[in-house]
Design a protein that fits this description.
Layout lengths: L1 H18 L14 E13 L23 E13 L2 E15 L6 H6 L2 E20 L11 H5 L3 E14 L3 E4 L2 E4 L20 E15 L3 E12 L14 H8 L1 H7 L28 E13 L13
Helix pairs in contact: 4-5
Length: 313
């Protein structure tokens, strides 16, 4: 991951040095400061459940199971502060999913847990990068091809921000999705169990986007974003297995059933240790999720100011 970030940074510096002199006029960017855009693409989850056919690596995209990618939609508003600096607000709706049955890694496959969650995310971010226009022939005949090229731009920006999101993990039972939080599957609220989690958390979006702007008004592009979160319960899995009988007594048989639906392929995998410590159900690394989306934007042109005629008298 460190090597990947270094390559992205070097590429960003290289492209900035090439294109930073390509603006047609120094003040052109002030005429196209405001943009509204929509995004659509896919979302994937990096957490305790699912993953590739190997031991998981925390926060690493090599553990992504692309067959579990779900849909993502978004709408945003961008305002240009300087040539290479934007502030953006965005709302995203996306679906994330994890399923141990889809991986052949022995321990996760035997665990046999699954979840799906709708995520509603509102975030703000700062974007830094370059925007280059093709200079063309400034003094050419009007409507020539080279003159039309001047209104097209290429942009590459990296961004970081902060957001808040809502999630609600569910799993499939008898053809219907059942919310997992009310079932306290890890003994939340019981002696020795963790505290009950809430359905809201903070996210730190990090990523980049490229866009191609046509006639200084319409843009198309692509956006990648990875979110670091501060919850380990997007998939309802975090700590250890809790005593099944205590779950039945306090929250009913469905709680115990969904807390441990293991296949029995690894005997004793979900049983307590000799000292009574519950077997590991998940790890303590916080969950994360990513999106890769196509973008379409509309840029609002600044209104021209009418020239005032000064009276000689």
């Amino acid at each position: 991951m460190k090597k990947s970030y270094l390559l992205i940074f070097l590429f960003f510096i290289f492209t900035c040095s090439i294109f930073s002199q390509n603006f047609t006029r120094p003040g052109d960017w002030k005429k196209v400061r405001k943009e509204i855009f929509i995004t659509m693409g896919g979302a994937n989850f990096l957490g305790d459940l699912g993953g590739r056919n190997r031991i998981g690596t925390d926060y690493s995209p090599v553990d992504l199971n692309f067959s579990l990618s779900k849909t993502a939609f978004g709408i945003g508003y961008r305002y240009k502060l300087e040539k290479f600096l934007n502030v953006t607000g965005k709302f995203n709706y996306l679906i994330v999913k994890g399923e141990d049955a889809k991986t052949q890694e022995p321990f996760r496959h035997n665990r046999n847990l699954s979840f799906k969650s709708n995520i509603f995310e509102l975030s703000g971010r700062v974007e830094f990068g370059y925007e280059s226009g093709k200079a063309g022939n400034r003094y050419g005949i009007k409507k020539t091809f080279s003159r039309r090229l001047k209104s097209n731009t290429n942009s590459f920006f990296v961004f970081a921000g902060i957001g808040v999101f809502y999630y609600n993990p569910k799993t499939l039972v008898g053809g219907k999705y059942v919310a997992l939080k009310p079932l306290h599957t890890e003994g939340q609220g019981l002696p020795g169990g963790p505290k009950q989690y809430i359905n809201y958390s903070i996210a730190i979006p990090l990523g980049f986007f490229y866009k191609y702007t046509i006639n200084k008004q319409w843009s198309v592009g692509i956006e990648f974003a990875w979110r670091k979160t501060f919850t380990d319960y997007i998939d309802d899995v975090s700590t250890r297995y809790y005593d099944k009988q205590a779950l039945i007594d306090n929250y009913g048989p469905l709680s115990a059933q969904l807390a441990d639906p293991s296949l029995g392929e690894i005997p004793g995998a979900s049983l307590p240790d000799a000292d009574g410590t519950g077997a590991q159900r998940g790890d303590l690394q916080k969950d994360s999720y990513i999106t890769l989306e196509a973008t379409v934007g509309y840029i609002f042109k600044a209104k021209r100011k009418r020239a005032r005629l000064r009276s000689k008298f």
